[in-house]
């Protein structure tokens, strides 16, 4: 029996990509879609909005109008909107998959607390299978190269991305910090002017914005006489959407709590 999915931000770049892939997926059915109330897509057939034939599913203006129909809510919208949708979902207790970036630490803590008490949530800043494998490889590399190597993360995205650095870059930095016993106070987000020598504890995080770059992340371990570079390049948003659909199939039926893509992919304890 197919999983019944509801997509938030149905007319957005990720929302529309996810919907198109759902219509190709034999194990997931789209049963609802919604946008913020002022969006011009509200009231239209979702097929018309995302470039598919008519589906009979109308884009609604609120989660509460469609929540009862689904098993899982997929949300790649905006941090404030995603948190608000999670609060509304307390009433319905549907599984959620949230790939939104830009959460403050306070918002993320609130989101996680809501999920722990009410519904299963897969929340991750990047749902690409390749990126999550990169996280595991970075963790292993940091363990081996724990001394004598300077670490830099370089991320590049399209000119329309609103938050910086990317959530994925922060995720990679936190993976490294956990292994090496460092914290956010060791993250170095930019350099300019006479800054002095690099400290041994720094984890550099550098940001590039331009054109239509979908997403690139490189983690550089620079030692004396050698360097190791681990890189992931996304050429299509479909890589994130396909990961989200893996999360959809995994999360339905799980106990309330907070999970991530390492759980979905079985990589957490490797």
Describe it:
The protein has 270 residues and is of the alpha/beta class. It folds into two domains: 3-123 and 237-265, Rossmann fold, CATH 3.40.50; 129-234, Dihydrodipicolinate Reductase, domain 2 (2-Layer Sandwich). The chain contains eight helices and twelve strands. The chain has helices at 13-22, 46-50, 79-89, 105-118, 129-144, 167-180, 238-251, 261-265, and strands spanning 3-8, 28-34, 59-60, 72-75, 95-98, 120-123, 150-157, 187-188, 203-209, 215-222, 227-234, 257-259. It has a seven-stranded parallel β-sheet with strand order 3-2-1-4-5-6-12, sandwiched between helices. α1 links the parallel β1 (3-8) and β2. α1 crosses α7 and α3 (79-89) runs parallel beside α4 (105-118). The protein is elongated.
Question: Which descriptors would you attach to this protein?
Answer:
270 residues; alpha/beta; Rossmann fold; Dihydrodipicolinate Reductase, domain 2; 2 domains; seven-stranded parallel β-sheet; five-stranded mixed β-sheet; 8 helices
């Amino acid at each position: 029996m197919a999983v019944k999915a509801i997509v938030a931000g149905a007319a957005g770049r990720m929302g529309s990509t996810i919907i198109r892939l759902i219509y190709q997926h034999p194990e997931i059915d789209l049963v609802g879609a919604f946008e913020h109330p002022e969006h011009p897509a509200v009231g239209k057939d979702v097929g018309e909005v995302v470039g598919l034939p008519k589906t009979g599913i109308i884009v609604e203006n609120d989660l509460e109008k469609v929540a009862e129909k689904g098993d899982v809510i997929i949300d790649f919208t905006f941090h404030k909107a995603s948190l608000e949708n999670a609060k509304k979902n307390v009433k319905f207790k549907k599984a959620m998959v949230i790939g939104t970036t830009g959460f403050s630490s306070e918002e993320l803590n609130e989101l996680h607390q809501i999920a722990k008490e009410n519904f299963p949530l897969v929340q991750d800043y990047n749902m690409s299978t390749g990126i999550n494998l990169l996280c595991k490889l970075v963790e292993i590399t940091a363990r081996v190269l724990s001394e004598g190597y300077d670490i830099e993360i370089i991320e590049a995205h399209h000119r329309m991305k609103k938050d910086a650095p990317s959530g994925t870059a922060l995720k990679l930095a936190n993976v490294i910090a956990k292994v090496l016993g460092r914290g956010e106070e060791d993250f170095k987000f930019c350099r300019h002017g006479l800054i002095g020598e690099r400290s041994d504890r720094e984890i550099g995080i550098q940001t590039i914005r331009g054109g239509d770059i979908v997403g690139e992340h490189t983690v550089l371990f620079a030692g004396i006489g050698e360097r190791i570079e681990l890189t992931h390049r996304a050429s299509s948003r479909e890589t994130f959407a396909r990961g989200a659909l893996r999360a959809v199939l995994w999360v339905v039926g799980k106990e309330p709590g907070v999970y991530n893509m390492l759980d979905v992919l079985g990589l957490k304890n490797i």
